[in-house]
Amino acid sequence: MGWCQLLAVSFPSPLFLRQPFVTSYSKLPIFPNSIAEYLKRGVKLLNGTRIHGQKTAIYNRTKDVDLPLGKYQAEKIKSEPWYKDLVPNFRQIPQEKLAPGFDSGSSFTSVCINTAIYLPWLTSQCLKAGVVFQRRIFKHICEAAKVHHSGEEAHLVVNCTGLSALRLGGVEDTNMMPIRGQIVVVRNEANLMCSSSGTDDGEDELCYIMQRAAGGGTILGGTYQKGNWDSQFDPNLANRIMKRAVDMLPGLTGGQGIEHLSIIRHGVGLRPYRQNGTRIEKEKIDGLWTVHNYGHGGFGYQSSYGCSMKVVKLVEETLLL
After folding, report:
1. Which burial class, exposed, middle or buried, applies to 171 when counting CB atoms under 10 A from its CB (0-12, 13-18, 19+)?
2. Contacting residues for 93 by C-beta, under 8 A, at least 6 apart
3. pLDDT for residue 117 is more than 80
4. Per residue in 91-114, pLDDT tens?
5. CA-based nearest residue to 173, from 302, 276, 96, 85
6. DSSP assignment of 39-65, as one string?
7. What is the pLDDT of residues 287-299, one digit of tens each?
8. How do residues 10-24 score in pLDDT, each as one tens digit?
9. Which residue spans within the chain are E strands per DSSP?
10. Which residues does 200 contact at the CB level (< 8 Å), separation at least 6?
11. In the chain, how long is the greatest CA-to-CA distance?
12. Whether the predicted pLDDT of 245 surpasses 90
């Protein structure tokens, strides 16, 4: 049995999560209209969080439809995706305005998050609400119930362990696996957040560009490598990522090629993917009620508040049993 180093978080009440700030941007049936409401009101509401609306384009190639990544992105490739009536300014991109090499595309206003600012802001909101943070090592999920700041044993544990759910005792979910993502962060500014349905460099390689607010840099990605635990960046892959980004959005370098990208750093992340989908449900483990909330893959930020609202509902239901 493995061990997991986790943050033990004690909430004074689960109700503080009921703030419709940002939303489920996945197909979870949780407040599907909240993304539109955020984009209408979010700039004023979330000015200090560095979440902002941004013009977005998705470029598609017909030949990607039957590839693994094309199937993963099947909804985005559709001319009438499920979210078309939720996001502001949705429209099809005219053929003459498509980036070279693409067959179709759509544009709309979406959300971009500077996570380096957003996460500390979230922490500050939790601290204001009376949340107590601890860093602990657990071998079994039930051990978390014994570290409540009150000194009493908790009646319920919310399990948000991500990839650690694979090895944490009492959970050991073999449906969990990493999906490796590699990015390059550059100083160059992008006037558009954009992505493509696939690349010619490999079935698990992507192309996407997003500029974070408040000096957060521009993210160039990426990869979608299932089952890959490698945490070190691949320089050859980094070069392919940069070349794809400049080809898709030449304005990044003023049309002068990747040698004019100003690199801040390289990054690698392991997305906590669950083969049977995100797990949000309650379970009794060795007599302890546990509410699970993990396996969000690459859409954790987008779906965080929608999932949290579902978790709050399950917690309230369970505590009333």
Report:
1. buried
2. 57, 59, 104, 105, 106, 107
3. yes
4. 999 999 988 889 999 999 888 888
5. 276
6. HHHHHHHTGGGTEEEEEEEEEE-GGGT
7. 999 999 999 998 8
8. 443 322 222 222 334
9. 4-10, 51-60, 91-92, 104-113, 132-138, 156-159, 176-186, 193-196, 205-211, 218-223, 225-226, 263-274, 279-285, 288-294
10. none
11. 66
12. yes
Q: Tokens representing 69? A: 């990544």
Name the amino acid, one letter, at 240.
Answer: R
Q: Per-residue pLDDT for 77 more than 90?
A: no
- For residue 245, what are its two tokens? 């980004």
How far CA 170 is from CA of 86, 144, 160, 248, in Å, comes to: 39, 11, 14, 46
Asked whether 7 and 144 are in contact (CB, 8 A), the reply is no
Q: Which of 253, 290, 225, 288 is nearest to 69 (CA)?
A: 225
pTM of the model: 0.84
Residues in CB range of 144: below 8 A, 6 or more apart = 6, 8, 136, 138, 154, 157
- Residue 188 identity (one-letter amino acid): N
Rounded distance, CA 153 to CA 286, Å? 14
List the structure tokens of 301: 């930020």
Distance from C-alpha of 261 to C-alpha of 173, rounded to nearest angstrom: 41
H helix runs in the chain, sequence order? 34-45, 68-72, 74-77, 115-128, 235-248, 300-319
Check residue 167 and give its pLDDT: 96
Cβ atoms 224, 69 nearer than 8 A: yes
pLDDT tier at 37, thresholds 50, 70, 90: low
For residue 72, what pLDDT is reported? Answer: 64
